[in-house]
Design brief:
By secondary structure, the chain is mainly alpha-helical. The protein has one domain. The protein is about 75% helix and about 0% strand. The chain has twelve helices and no strands. About 45% of the residues are buried.
């Protein structure tokens, strides 16, 4: 049984909003998928859907940072090396979890606990931001640490943008620079994961209708993601990054209560 289009679209909007805002898109996808009571026998489980919708928000990054990406390819070759180093932990952590930890990656109770962790990290950035400065460069060591934060954030409820930006700010990197590096380093990870999923989906001759539904979901997540990313950049400039903790912590508590008391 394939996911109904209306469920795909709901999850696509959630993905577009939460991918760039530091509230964990994967966590929200897992939680809402559980609320929608998606059929566990469906061809497209939440992990596959999560990756496909990430491709839509990958397009959002390309649109918003198009000029920066062109400049990186033409002139700033040093940044390419930094991004490559930052990608290593995501591969080392992500591939084994994807292969052997699918139940972990689709666990709403875990997402609830990790949302609280995300909220605490966001609150901590209020202190980090005071110490960050424009002149602090991104070294290979710093890139590796930020990359490790990205790798750990594969767990549902841990915000990739929240953890990577916080890891950069903890190393005195200015918030806007931290955000740019965070979203650029997401490109190879999301593109690689999405490519693997597309190959799997296209190899199934019976999945044509569902694939078309997911393509529609990807387009929706792209459009919503552009506005979400621009919103986050404005809030970073105004020092409001920690505000999202006031969503993550109550949401995490609510999910824990739901999973432990009402189930």
């Amino acid at each position: 049984m394939d996911l109904p289009i209306w469920q795909v679209l709901i999850l696509a909007v959630v993905q577009g909003v939460s991918e760039f805002l530091p509230i964990s898109s994967s966590g929200h996808i897992v939680i809402i998928a559980a609320l929608l009571a998606s059929d566990s026998e469906s061809k497209f489980d939440v992990t596959d859907l999560n990756i496909i919708l990430h491709l839509g928000t990958l397009g959002s990054i390309v649109i918003v940072y198009f000029k920066r990406i062109l400049g990186l390819l033409r002139e700033d070759r040093h940044l390419i090396g930094l991004l490559a180093v930052a990608t290593i932990p995501a591969i080392a952590i992500g591939l084994p979890l994807k292969a052997f930890g699918k139940d972990l990656l689709t666990n709403p109770l875990l997402a609830g606990f990790m949302l609280i962790v995300t909220g605490v990290v966001l609150i901590a950035t209020t202190f980090m931001q005071k110490q960050s400065n424009d002149s602090s460069p991104i070294s290979y060591k710093k890139a590796l640490i930020i990359g490790f934060a990205q790798g750990v954030a594969i767990l549902p409820g841990l915000s990739r943008s929240g953890f990577t930006i916080a890891a950069a700010m903890a190393q005195r990197i200015e918030p806007k620079t931290a955000a740019t590096f965070s979203f650029l380093m997401a490109i190879p990870v999301i593109a690689g994961g999405g490519l693997l999923e597309i190959v799997d989906l296209l190899s199934d001759a019976t999945a044509t209708t569902a694939v078309s539904s997911l393509i529609l979901g990807g387009v929706v997540s792209l459009v919503v993601g552009v506005f979400s990313l621009l919103w986050l950049l404005r809030w970073l400039e105004r020092g409001r990054f920690y505000w999202f903790a006031y969503w993550c912590i109550p949401m995490g508590i609510a999910v824990i209560v739901w999973q432990t008391v009402w189930q």
